[in-house]
Amino acid sequence: MADFEIPEPKEIPVIPRVQPGVMSHSAPFVAKPNFQEPLGFPGELVDNWEDVAVKKLGELTGKYRSLQVYLDSCVKCGACTDKCHYYLGTSDPKNMPVARQDLLRQVYRRYYTLAGQYFPKLVGAVDMSKEVLDDWYSYYHQCSQCRRCSVFCPYGIDTAEISMAAREIMDAVGQGQKYCNEIIGKVYKIGNNLGLPEPALVDTLEGLEEEVEEDTGVKVRYPVDEKGAEVLLVTPSADFFAEPHVDGLIGYGKVFHQAGISWTLSSHASEAANFGMFIGSYENMQRVSMRVREAALELGVKRIVFGECGHAWRVAYSFLNTLAGPFDFLDPKYPVPQHICEVTHDLIKRGALKLDPSANDDMVLTYHDSCNVARASRMGDSPGGQFFIPREIIKAVCNNFVDMPPDTIHDATYCCGGGGGLLTDDLMELRVKGALPRMEALKQVVDNDGVTHMAAICAICKSQFTKVIPYYGFGMDMIVSVHQLVSNAIVLANNEQ
Ligand code: SF4
Ligand code: SF4
């Protein structure tokens, strides 16, 4: 089934012995000119790429103070070395966060510090070379930008930011990643990552309405481009067709229906994901984000709600106002985008949804905290809302819930192994190995507590898990959307909108 060794999940996780270079062969496909150029990058490696790379690095450290501080402040304490799921799953020492940072730091030191200019060997500074570029391309595409290492670093050094900067430099010299750049191009051309055109979207949603009516006897609407709706729902395009994602979309529709909130999707902003963040490109992140603003204005909505997508929520929560604001045209009661979990949680607390948790009695649930939600955003008005809101929803709609071990959840959660623009088949070995720590934690609650299903609120986590979980002996249908559980438990009434 796999042409690489699948790691053995241990009952008590073990920090592996280093195996230098064991993952040096792992690198994603390089983007061809037709995927590079529409994003404003050179089509292929430019002639003077060493100079361009060094100049771009200087530009980025000048622009982002945090990047320079991260590159200057590591004291090599080693606290981060065993915190990355890719190191734990592969045992390649260049997947230790500090070593990954050093790939960029060594060039920064050479060109932008006095010691590196005069005594390069003494401070581990090196010239920009093809060997360095190849290492960057390989190992900065073995970082899912999950930020787990930064939680354990006494200086808060964020390797994700360094990895984004490295990818931005590689795009600037003409060596971008095919998967991310092709997807961003599809959003510009068609409106979503899947390349699903408007007529296909309309068809899909009509089909969904019929399916829900057949199942429940209630006409729940899944509208698109409906002017004057109160809410614009921006959701990952995976929600439009694939399981378990689509079951979550069915759930959002039922929540809005039951609460009597009018809502619509948009064919212009039919994608919540924003891969501009993964490649570190502010310009592309902004271009993708502007579609949300344009759609909201065009449709005249009063609220913007994001569906279950981890990094999209990070962009919405942390950056959207800067990228595409101000959102002064929204209802002052909802001046910033909300997460669908905030909407549902609030309705549950107010008793506005009738729920029958026994509808999920065939499952024992656990919950996977997605990195970008857990470590790069919040939910609701209280600290820690991103942890307790999804759990409180699950507990309101399910009778059986068990958390995974404490050092693998909340802000210490392990990445699914496919985030940060790595959810591509050309990185399957990395994805399977990087999932090891999460699989070990899952196995513990399966073996000890009879857990049968794992819920998540991130399209990338759900896609990654359904693909890699069978390598570890679990069934792919073990992964569910949180709003799929809500959908099962909600008792619908005939509210025609
Ligand atoms: S951000 Fe995540 S994937 Fe990247 S080095 Fe840190 S722990 Fe590893
Ligand atoms: S924990 Fe922070 S300071 Fe220590 S080695 Fe890692 S990055 Fe450097």
Biggest beta sheet summary: 4 strands, parallel
Mean pLDDT: 96
* Anisotropy-based shape: globular
Please tell me the total number of domains.
2
Strand content: under 5%
Low-confidence segments:
none
Tell me roughly what share of residues is in helical segments. 40-55%
Say how many strands there are: 7
Structural notes for this entry:
This protein is mainly alpha-helical and 497 residues long. The chain folds into two domains: 33-176, Orthogonal Bundle (Fumarate Reductase Iron-sulfur Protein, Chain B, domain 2); 185-402 and 451-489, no CATH class. Helices cover 47% and strands 4% of the residues. The chain is built from 21 helices and seven strands. The strands form two sheets. A four-stranded parallel sheet has the order 2-1-3-4. The protein has a three-stranded parallel sheet with strand order 5-6-7, with helices on both faces. Helix 20 links the parallel strand 6 and strand 7. Helix 2 runs antiparallel to helix 9 and helix 5 crosses helix 9 (159-173). The longest helix has 19 residues, at 198-216. The termini are far apart. The mean pLDDT is 96. One iron/sulfur cluster is lined by residues 83-84, 86, 97, 100, 143-149, 159-160, 163, 415. Residues 74-80, 97-98, 153, 155, 157 line the site of one iron/sulfur cluster.
